[in-house]
Amino acid sequence: AVAAALEYIRNNNEIWEVIVSGGDPLVASPRRISELVQELAAIDHVRVVRFHSRVPMVAPERVTGALVAALAVPGITSWVAIHANHPREFTPAACAAIARLADAGIPLVSQTVLLAGVNDDAEMLALLMRRFVENRVKPYYLHHGDLAPGTGHFRTSLAEGRRLVRALRGHVSGLCQPTYVLDIPGGHGKVPVGPDAVETDGITTTVTDYHGCRHVYPNTHDPTKS
């Protein structure tokens, strides 16, 4: 399957970034990871490879010098997207594993699933996003729960998720803001579903702040007026 995927990537020069997800790709041996990254680095049109993983959080001892070296291959930029859903996942061992990646110059982003009863609280989400940033991980995606069988008790409504994301704007800086996304069933991709902060009627724009208050802003700028 890997050989077929690599052949497809070689034959499609519009592919600039390759995502390696799972399962969890970082449970593979450093040798296998290094071989894959080197194969991708040898493809001229592939410039970025992104690994999605929970290994730094749940098995931080696997983030060894050999694993870090396997990711840091010349000729391609390796990113790691770290999946975590609660601030308590940031144990000392997890933070040390993340630091080993960051110290090697590997760019890091986050991915979180909005889970009812786990992190569906603005203060909890704010703390989680701050933990990412404190550990040199840029918050990237906050996923609305998928329609997977048996997971309905973890899923919030879209309206509740949008309310939480709006509230998050008032708790943390822009650096800590993830993009709230919905994975459309049927393989139609991810779309942002965050709060609609801007509406326009062609003459003026109405901007909604994190309190839900609406403010009118002019659509045009007259340079003769201050």
Could you write a compact summary of the structure shown?
With about 230 residues, the chain is an alpha/beta fold. It has two domains: about 1-195, Aldolase class I (TIM Barrel, Alpha-Beta Barrel), CATH 3.20.20.70; about 195-225, no CATH class. It has helices spanning about 1-10, 30-40, 55-60, 65-70, 90-105, 120-135, 160-170; strands at about 15-20, 50-55, 75-85, 110-115, 140-145, 180-185, 190, 200, 205-210, 215-220.
List the helices and strands and how they pair.
Elements: H1 2-10, E1 17-20, H2 30-41, E2 48-53, H3 55-58, H4 65-71, E3 77-83, H5 92-103, E4 108-113, H6 122-134, E5 138-143, H7 158-169, E6 179-183, E7 190-192, E8 198-200, E9 204-208, E10 214-218
How many domains in all? Answer: 2
Kindly report the CATH topology of the largest domain: TIM Barrel
CATH architecture annotation name of the largest domain: Alpha-Beta Barrel
- Spell out the helices and strands N to C: HEHEHHEHEHEHEEEEE
Main beta sheet, described? Answer: 7 strands, mixed
The named CATH superfamily of the largest domain: Aldolase class I
**Physical arrangement of strands within the biggest beta sheet:** 1-2-3-4-5-6-7
Helix content: 25-40%
SS element count, helices: 7
Q: Determine Rg (CA atoms, Å).
A: 20 Å
Q: What's the level 1 CATH class of the largest domain? A: Alpha Beta
